[in-house]
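Researcher: Go.
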Amino acid sequence: MKLEVQNLVKSYGNFQALNGITFSVERGQILGLLGRNGAGKTTTIKSIMGIIEPDSGDILFDKKPLTRDSVSIGYLPEERGLYMNTRVKDQLVYFGMLNGLSKAEALQEIKQLLEQFEILQYLNKKVKTLSKGNKQKIQLISAILHRPQIAILDEPFSGLDPVNIELFKNTVLDLKKNGTTILFSSHRMEDVEEMCDRIVMLNKGNIVENDTVSGLIEKYSKKNTILLQVNQDITPFLHNKNLKLQSEHNLIFEIQYEKKEDLTVLYQELLQQNIQLIKVEEPKCSLQSIFIKELSDHES
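Model: Structure:
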């Protein structure tokens, strides 16, 4: 059971928002949908939700056309939308019943989630009396209290303090564990890298990357390169060993090599000279640097 987006095309007048994009998300996976403003993320999300109709292409869930009647979807929009003069309980019951729960079922889920988010005491308070972080908790609860098959989370951690970010992360990971298919859009690359299974990177309506997080990092990381942190300068020991110094900062040497045997010879020589190897690691690219590089490369 998975969500499949196949050859999705959408234009607004002369503006081509989506150029035949294709990707899929397995049940119980988190897919990071990334891109700069105007890349096509919002059009993709609204197409999946049935808010807009694409010009062509298919959106399937469990190999059948996705409709709101056949598949339950939870949506946390970037632009939050709460009724400020309504009590928390009344608002959440309303959202729960809109998504197919009975009033009793909704109340049971609401109390459980409010307790999980440590805000059960606000059950009968008006939304406008809550802090920004607690309003955001209500928004997330409204998106997930019906235990959707698909959850679309647009900038879910925006404006949250570190404690609440961790609480939100744990909630999202619980959804994943229980089999929810999750689309996750965020500009916080460290959170995307930590939580997502796959990444779809959009630019100007095209997919420029579609891979696992580990696959992307491996693809962009430097090959045959090692970082050595030592307690003194080792530049003299690099000559005539098929080793090339790429950079050095605070006695951390980035060295390119042809064969690992050349590194073994270097290590032995450093040990003989009583030079301490403090740390040895292969440099890995961050998702943040990939995002900047890939979208910069496609800007022209």
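Model: The longest helix spans residues 162-177.
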